[in-house]
Amino acid sequence: VLVIKVKDYLQSTDFLVTSNMAITKCLKTAQVRASEVGPIEQGATPINQISTPILGWDSVNNPFPATVGRLTETDEELRERFRNAKFERSSNILDSLYSALRNLEGVLEVRIYENDTNVVDEYGVAAHSFMPVVLGGETAKVAQAIWQNKPMGIRSQGNTIVSVNDIQGFSHDIGFERPSPVPIYVKLTITTDPVNFPPNGEEDIKSAIVDYAQSIGVGKDVIFSRLYTPINSVKGHQVDELVIGNTPSPTLSQNVVIPFNAIASFDSNNIEIITIQP
Fold first, then answer.
1. CA quadruple 229, 211, 81, 128: dihedral positive or negative?
2. What contacts 118, CB < 8 A, 6 or more positions away?
3. CA-CA to 89 of 20 to 30 Å: which in 76, 183, 227, 248?
4. 176: closest CA among 271, 103, 83, 109?
5. Residue 131 CB: number of other CB atoms within 10 A?
């Protein structure tokens, strides 16, 4: 019995067998899609149960984290996609690359930093290189889109490296940046109106803050004053104190600066609400 394990799940392999050998089991890579719509995260390895038995299936697993989905496209997002699509046949390589990446399924945001100088620039991009920052999308497809649209001899860099083969079979390392999440901590003190404040008012405020945060794009600072809008969307309270920061037990009443290759990350577990009843 010969057991062969692949090192790269994304690469396929052909085997030839002789008359005294036979393949009895094999590992098959497939794509799955969530049944629920929305930005639902799924990490690597938790999927290990076959809910509907299939003849011949012994086990199942997900070696990679899933690509985070998105909500149904709004009218404004449709108009933006239409504007981006106009660059698909652009003669400018940067515009063509941006459009190719932005139109990939699951891609939510794209920023491309180009350095055409002879020295490393302020963003850390090497001389005569570029750094695509891509939020969402399947890693292999993002790398393929960069390879198909990048200029010859110019290196793409980032914290994610994918090997792509050209038509001659030569391998090329394609780099791009995945935005690093910056956890944001919020501490809020409110005085509630016992008549108008909802029974689940604290959870409603947390949900409103988290929902608002999804509109904060890559490299965008968290503007302190704008948090009052989602907080005040819940009726029956007044804000006595609001502090935020990127570490637990925040103390700042000012904006939180987010690096160009990062994105603010809000979690309801990181939002503390102190309620005072008159």
1. positive
2. 127, 128
3. 76
4. 109
5. 24
Query: Are the CB atoms for 6 and 27 separated by under 8 Å?
Result: yes
- DSSP β-bridge partners for residue 237: 192
Q: What is the mean pLDDT of residues 206-210?
A: 95
Q: Rounded to a whole number, what is the largest CA-CA distance in the chain?
A: 85
Rg (CA), the chain: 24
Tokens 């393929």 map to which residue? 144
* Dist CA 277 CA 186 (whole Å): 20
Are the C-beta atoms of 154 and 127 separated by less than 8 Å?
Answer: no
What pLDDT was estimated at residue 92?
Answer: 60
Beta strand segments in the chain, E: 107-115, 129-136, 155-156, 160-165, 171-176, 180-192, 237-245, 262-276
- Per-residue pLDDT reduced to its tens digit, 168-193: 889 999 999 999 999 999 999 999 99
Long-range contacts of 75-83 (CB under 8 A, 24+ apart): none
What is the Cα–Cα distance from 144 to 174, expressed in whole angstroms?
A: 8
Distances (CA, A) of 158 to 71, 147, 150: 27, 14, 14
Tokens coding 214: 């999804």
3-state secondary structure of 221: coil
In the sheet where 262-276 sits, what is the strand order? 237-245, 180-192, 262-276
> Collapsing DSSP states into helix, strand and coil, what is residue 140?
helix
Report d(CA 64, CA 78) in Å as an integer: 30
Distance in Å from the first CA to the final CA of the chain: 75
Q: Which two tokens stand for residue 68?
A: 């985070």
Task: Report which residue type is found at 51.
Answer: S
Type of residue found at 183: P
Dihedral (Cα; 192, 198, 204, 209), 10-degree rounding: -40
- Classify each residue of 102-111 as buried b or exposed e, where b means 16 or more C-beta atoms within 10 Å of its C-beta: bbbebbbbbb
